[in-house]
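Design request, tokens follow.
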């Protein structure tokens, strides 16, 4: 059987402006398709995306998880020792990071992070109208995460610039990629410096990575690169995760009422929000052998783009997938990925979202859109530039 070919560029402005509008065509074309404009295989159905993510032996990450094949072209920055690594190296680095970003570490930060959420919500309630992207989605992670990682206070805006560039760089070298790279030159230097042991606060997660490096047979340079992973993956993801979650509640007011009636649902809200509209839209893998997918063959050494966001709304897997529903069983969503690379920071992201909601629930009766949401185009992230909202006090 042959693989259907589509003339779809998932990184052009039309696609990136409204990815969900294009996902059904990708899913319906077949379990695996060939995208002519980017000369790459693609999967968009839940079953195939989940299976590929779970089979890291066949679908490897070491040749990059963007369009660029690191075995053919030099990566734009030294590869991540987590995201862009395969076992056995990956298991060692992940083992260290699991000890740093642990349940215990999260329990320790919870009281401070909760206080910060309440302070921020106090300010927002005074304003009533605010931008849920800049004043909440960005503001909250920036109030808690950089301090916890332990980076210098000066110049932290570089974290936002850097993350945007990192996620753009998984796509082709289009205008968005090039702009991101140009804007990030200064941020790249700032981040490199922030990752050094001398720059990191004592007792911070960043310092802890350095302290543990020897036990895991990792050099100081490798420890720096693991700190870099926290800074690359921990900012723009939660920024947009919280932003999109606020958009979900503004778009489905009955779900806000449902949450207020049963505040315990706050812990599940981010997962359903990610299923409904996934912050990370796509990641690539590279095949390590010829692989049969439902009767069609993908040759060895092929890039395959996995549409996490499309899988999360696949009607073959989800009932009423367009509906944001807090009571849905979200288990199996691939918004945090799946398999050995599944998001290391997922507990951090869930905690941030839960604490923001915990602060809002008792005090906010309604969240209303107060203007059109404005998108920020990114080659990987479903990102918002602005989300004007009005909150009505309870
Ligand atoms: C990393 C990294 C960068 C971007 C995303 C990510 C979603 C990880 O440097 O390890 O995970």
């Amino acid at each position: 059987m042959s693989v259907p070919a589509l003339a779809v560029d998932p990184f052009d402005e039309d696609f990136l402006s409204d990815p969900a509008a294009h996902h059904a065509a990708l899913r319906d074309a077949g379990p695996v398709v060939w995208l002519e404009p980017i000369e790459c295989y693609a999967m968009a159905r839940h079953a195939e995306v989940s299976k590929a993510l779970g089979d890291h032996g066949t679908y490897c990450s070491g040749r990059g998880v963007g369009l660029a094949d690191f075995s053919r072209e030099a990566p734009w920055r030294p590869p991540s020792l987590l995201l862009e690594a395969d076992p056995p190296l990956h298991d060692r680095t992940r083992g260290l990071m699991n000890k740093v970003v642990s349940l215990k570490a999260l329990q320790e930060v919870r009281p401070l992070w909760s206080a910060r959420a309440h302070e921020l919500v106090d300010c927002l309630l005074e304003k009533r109208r605010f931008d849920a992207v800049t004043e909440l989605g960005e503001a909250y992670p920036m109030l808690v995460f950089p301090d916890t990682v332990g980076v210098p206070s000066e110049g932290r805006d570089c974290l936002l610039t850097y993350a945007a560039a990192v996620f753009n760089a998984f796509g082709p070298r289009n205008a968005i990629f090039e702009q991101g790279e140009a804007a990030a030159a200064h941020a790249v230097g700032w981040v490199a410096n922030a990752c050094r042991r001398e720059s990191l606060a004592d007792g911070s997660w960043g310092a802890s990575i350095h302290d543990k490096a020897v036990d895991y047979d990792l050099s100081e340079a490798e420890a720096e690169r693991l700190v870099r992973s926290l800074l690359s993956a921990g900012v723009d993801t939660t920024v947009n995760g919280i932003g999109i979650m606020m958009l979900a509640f503004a778009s489905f007011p009955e779900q806000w009422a449902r949450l207020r009636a049963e505040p315990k649902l706050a812990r599940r809200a981010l997962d359903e929000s990610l299923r409904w509209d996934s912050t990370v839209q796509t990641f690539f893998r590279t095949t390590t052998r010829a692989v049969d997918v439902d009767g069609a063959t993908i040759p060895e050494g092929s890039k395959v783009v996995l549409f996490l966001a499309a899988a999360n709304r696949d009607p073959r897997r989800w009932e009423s997938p367009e509906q944001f529903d807090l009571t849905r069983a979200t288990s199996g969503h691939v918004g945090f990925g799946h398999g050995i690379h599944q998001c290391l920071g997922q507990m951090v992201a869930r905690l941030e979202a839960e604490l923001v909601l915990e602060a809002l629930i008792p005090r906010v009766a309604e969240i209303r859109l107060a203007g059109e949401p404005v998108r920020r185009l990114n080659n990987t992230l479903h990102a918002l530039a602005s989300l004007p909202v009005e909150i009505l006090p309870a």
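Comment from the thread starter after seeing the answer: thanks! The longest strand covers residues 282-287.
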